[in-house]
Specification:
Helices cover 27% and strands 32% of the residues. The chain is α/β, with parallel strands linked by helices. The chain has one domain: Rossmann fold (3-Layer(aba) Sandwich), CATH 3.40.50.880. Strands 2-1-3-4-13-12-11-8-9 form a 9-stranded mixed beta sheet.
Length: 210
C-alpha cells in the first residue's frame, strides 16, 4: 500500500489517480498508522509553506512524517515529496516570512530572483545531475510540468538529482538514500511522469503495472 499524506493541501485526487494507474493500492490518509504501515509514502502539496506546517502539526502528522522521511533518507522505505512536499523537507522557507520546515534535508526555500515571472508555470526540462533508478527510461532533459514561485537551495550539492533552468539553474529534484523529492508534478506530466512514478514504485517493491 502507498500512503498519500492528506494534510489539507494539495491535489490529492490527481496524485492518487496517477499512482492508481500504475496498478498499486493507494490510500489518501491523515492517520499516522497508515503512514507507518505503508510500503511507500508520498507527501504532495500545493499552497503556502506556513499553512502546510501548521496543518501537519494540528493533525498530529508533523513528527510521523518527519520520522518517515528521515528513515527514507537513511535508506529505509521510499518516500516521495512533490512540489510543496519537496520544500517542506528543508530547514527553512522564506515564503511570506521566515518559517521552520521539517529539516530532514539541509538547505532553505527561497523565492525566484527579482524580475522573474512567478509562478514558474508550465513545461520545462529536467536535466539529470546524477544517475538514479528514478530516471530509468527517462530522457535527460525530458519535460515535466511545474507550478511554483519558490525553489529549494540545498546546502549540499550532492543532494541535487535533477536541475531546471529558470532564471538560472536550480535543483528541481533532490534525493538522499530512499528519499526523493520533486519540484515538478509527475502526476501532471503525461507518460513521462507516469514512468517516473512507476520507477519510484519499483524501488518500493510495488507492482507498477507498466
Amino acid at each position: 500500500m502507498v500512503a498519500i499524506v492528506d494534510y489539507g493541501l494539495g491535489n490529492l485526487k490527481s496524485v492518487a489517480c496517477a499512482f492508481g494507474r500504475c496498478g498499486v493500492d493507494v490510500r489518501i490518509t491523515s492517520d499516522a498508522r497508515d503512514i507507518a504501515a505503508a510500503a511507500a509514502v508520498v507527501l504532495p502539496g500545493v499552497g503556502a509553506f506556513e499553512k502546510a506546517m501548521g496543518n501537519l502539526r494540528r493533525l498530529g502528522l508533523l513528527d510521523p512524517v518527519k520520522a518517515t522521511a528521515a528513515e527514507a533518507a537513511a535508506g529505509g522505505k521510499p518516500f516521495l515529496g512533490i512540489c510543496l512536499g519537496l520544500q517542506l523537507l528543508f530547514e527553512k522557507s522564506f515564503e511570506h516570512g521566515e518559517y521552520e520546515g521539517l529539516a530532514v534535508l539541509p538547505g532553505i526555500v527561497a523565492r525566484f530572483a527579482p524580475g522573474m515571472k512567478v509562478p514558474h508555470m508550465g513545461w520545462n526540462r529536467v536535466r539529470h545531475i546524477k544517475e538514479s533508478p528514478l530516471f530509468d527510461g527517462i530522457e535527460d532533459g525530458a519535460y515535466f510540468y511545474f507550478a511554483h514561485s519558490y525553489r529549494a537551495e540545498p546546502a549540499r550539492a550532492d543532494l541535487a538529482l535533477g536541475e531546471t533552468d529558470y532564471g538560472g539553474a536550480y535543483a528541481s529534484a533532490v534525493s538522499q538514500g530512499m528519499l526523493f523529492a520533486l519540484q515538478f508534478h509527475p502526476e501532471k506530466s503525461g507518460e513521462t511522469g507516469l514512468r517516473m512514478i512507476g520507477n519510484f514504485l519499483r524501488m518500493a517493491g510495488e507492482s507498477d503495472g507498466r
